[in-house]
Amino acid sequence: MNWQWSDIYSHPIWMVSAAILAIIVRAQRKASWNPRACPVKLEGKTAIVTGANTGIGKFIALDFARRGARVILACRSEARGTAALQEIRESTGNQNVHLRLLDTSSLDSVRKFAAEILEEEKALHILVNNAGASGLPGKITADRLEITFATNHVGPFLLTSLLLDLLKKSAPARIVNVSSMNHWKGEVNFDHFRGHNLKHVMDAAYNHTKLHNVIWTNESARRLQGTGVTANSLHPGVVLTDVMRNYNFIIRFLFNLVGFFFFKTAEEGAFSTIYCAVSEEAEGITGKYFDRDCSLVLPAPSARDPALGEKEYEFCERLTAKP
Prior knowledge:
Elements: H1 5-9, H2 12-27, E1 46-50, H3 55-66, E2 70-75, H4 78-92, E3 97-101, H5 107-120, E4 126-129, H6 147-169, E5 173-178, H7 204-223, E6 229-234, H8 249-262, H9 266-269, H10 271-278, E7 289-290, E8 296-297, H11 306-320
Parallel strand pairs: 1-2, 1-4, 2-3, 4-5, 5-6, 6-7
Antiparallel strand pairs: 7-8
Helix pairs in contact: 3-4, 5-6, 6-7, 7-11
């Protein structure tokens, strides 16, 4: 009997089996904690979510709005931010959702955004540093920073630093930094911040910045002890979002194809961030790293080095100091 692989792939049984496998695999992604089952309300609370116009960030902001919070969408694109704003207002009925422009790759933009917040807001209870990018081409910003490091780490560091007093005044308050399991593949080399000795191979720069996120978060938690402000970082899971938009078509196609079966949706990817930001279970926990299922796990060894954390924090303070 002569047969070809194409005969198998085109057979109805193959297609039915593939569909069943997809359903089973997607069902296995069900999280142990679901925001919909969390009764916490946020009336009278103010939250900022960076990168809130799409993907994980939009679903985080949507959840906060459903809970009655005053939500500030910090977005780089006014057009996409406005679209997200309208969608969230219409979906939740919460009109106390607002858009402010923020480009974390620009220190001037971060300072301008923070100045507006400090002028307009009397309190800040939740700060979610979600904005980030992967696959950016090698480029040095006007601040003489490598663009991935500026976007994913230095900008969020400066933003948080400028809003710390407001967070302390509003305590209890929570800082939540979205990192990634890829931080395990990252390396600490402070020359990278200026683009030196940095290889732009796939997600290498992204991985380095995600490691710096965790190191900074843990050191922030140490410095904030006794203030009522907590700081935690997390891995949202491998999420099917437009995070790969800066890669070529083939890589994006493969990512989306595999992602359909195995990756989380953007809504599911928001769960661990929401858990850290609002859940009663996370209240008072600080300086920790949460996995995609909201469980506490150990980060990479370098993220647990107090001496490195202090060096990291002081380095970023010098880097973001006004000339």
